[in-house]
Amino acid sequence: MANLKEIRTRIVSVKSTRQITNAMKMVSAAKLRKAQNAILQLRPYAKKMHEILSHVSDVSEGDIDNMYSEKRKEEKVLILLVSSNRGLCGAFNANVSKKVIEVIKSKYQNLFDNNNVDLYTIGKKAGDVLKGKSFEMNGSFDEIYDDLTYEKVAVIAEDLMKMFADKKYDKIDIIYNRFKNASVQIITHETILPVTADETEQNGTGDYIFEPDLNYILENLMPESIKVNLFAAILDSNAAEQGARMTAMHKATDNASELIKDLTLSYNKARQASITSEILEITAGAEALNN
Amino acid sequence: MYLEIVTPEKTLFSGEVVHIKVPGSDGSFGIMKNHAAVISVLQKGILEFTDENEKVQTFEINGGVVEVLDNNIVVLAK
C-alpha cells in the first residue's frame, strides 16, 4: 500500500486538475452561448438570401449562367478543413481529419494520386494530425478564429471565388463539424463551389421587376450567398467546438471527482492501518514492560 | 407594409412602415404601399424609412439587396 504522504500529494494534484477542467468547462459554456447566438442571428439572413436567390432562379427558369455555378470536369480539387486552433475538445478535430481521409479515398483517389487534391485548413488542429500522416497542407486561414466576423470570412470567400474563377480549382469542398447540440456534432461534407441551384418549389411569384437587370442581380447575389454559406459553416464549427470542449471537460471533471473519491478511500485505509499498527506497537511495548 | 432589415450579424429592424427609400444601384428610389414586386441590388448609401408613428429612421448600408413582394419588404444589408 502506498504511503500516506504519496496519496496526499496525489489527491492535491488531482483536485487542482479538477479545478482547471471545471473552469474550462465554464468558459466553454459561456463561449458556446455566444457562438450559438451568432448562428441564430445569421439564420434569418441566410434564409432570406436563399429565398431571393430561388425567386430569381425561378424566373430565369433554372438555367443560371454564372461563373460560380459552372460545372467543369474535376481536374483539380480543393478541400477546406474546418477544425479548431485549440485542443482539449474530445474527438472534434480527429473527426475532421478522419473524414478527409475517407472523402479522399472514396471520391478523389485518382486525383489525389496525381497530386491534384489540395488541402487548406481553417484551424490548425486537423492539419497537424494530417501532417503526421504525411499529408501536405497547401494553405491555411487559421487566424480567422482570432476575430470571427462576417467581413473576415468574406475576404476568405473572395479568395476562394477568385481561385475558382481563375480555374485554379474546378471544385471546392468543405468539411466541418455541424452543431446539433452541445454534445452532438455532425461531421459534414459539402460543396461550396460550383454553386448548385437547389430544387425549389415553384410558388408562382414570377412577376418581378428587376433592377437593374437579372444578370446583374445574379452576379451580385451569387458571391454573397457563397460568403453566407462559408460563414455559416465556420460559425457552426465554432459552436460545435465549444460544445465538444464543454462535454470533454465535463467528463474530465467527473473522472477527477471519481479519482479523488478512490484516493480518499485508500488514504483513509492507509491512515487507519498505520494507527492500528501504532497501537499494536504501544500495547506490545507496555506488555513487555509489565513482564 | 412590413419591413425587415437583416444583416449577417443581426436583424436591424422589423416592423410596419409607411414609406421607405433605398439606394438602388441605378439611383435611390422610394417604396410605398402596394408597390409592384421588385428585386433590386443596392449600393452603398443611406436607407431611410418612416415607421407607423411618422418617425423617420435612417441606416447607412454598404450595399445589399431589396425584395418587395405583396407589401413585404426584405432588405439584406451588408
Shape of chain A: elongated
CATH superfamily of the largest domain in chain A: ATP synthase, F1 complex, gamma subunit
Helix content of chain B: under 10%
Question: Given the helix and strand composition of chain B, which structural class is it?
Answer: mainly beta
Roughly how much helix do the residues of chain A carry, as a percent range? 55-70%
Distance between the termini of chain B: 23 Å
The radius of gyration over CA of chain A amounts to: 29 Å
Structure overview:
The complex is a heterodimer of chains A (291) and B (78). With 291 residues, chain A is α/β, with parallel strands linked by helices. Chain A has six helices and six strands. In chain A, strand 4 and strand 5 (184-193) form a beta hairpin. Helix content of chain B is 0%, strand content 74%. Chain B has a five-stranded mixed β-barrel with strand order 1-2-4-5-6. In chain B, a hairpin with a 4-residue loop joins strand 4 and strand 5 (56-69). Classes of the chains: A alpha/beta (291), B mainly beta (78). The interface between A and B is medium-sized, with 27 and 23 residues.
Summarize the helices and strands and which ones pair or pack.
The complex is a heterodimer of chains A (291) and B (78).
Chain A: H1 4-59, E1 77-82, H2 92-107, H3 109-113, E2 117-122, H4 124-132, E3 139-140, H5 150-165, E4 171-181, E5 184-193, E6 209-211, H6 214-290
Parallel strand pairs in A: 1-2, 1-4, 2-3
Antiparallel strand pairs in A: 4-5
Helix pairs in contact in A: 1-6, 2-4, 5-6
Chain B: E1 2-6, E2 11-24, E3 27-31, E4 38-51, E5 56-69, E6 72-77
Produce a short descriptive summary:
The complex is a heterodimer of chains A (291) and B (78). By secondary structure, chain A is of the alpha/beta class.
Attribute tags:
heterodimer; A: alpha/beta; Pyruvate Kinase, Chain: A, domain 1; 2 domains; 5-stranded mixed beta sheet; 6 helices; 6 strands; B: 78 residues; mainly beta; ATP Synthase, domain 1; 5-stranded mixed β-barrel
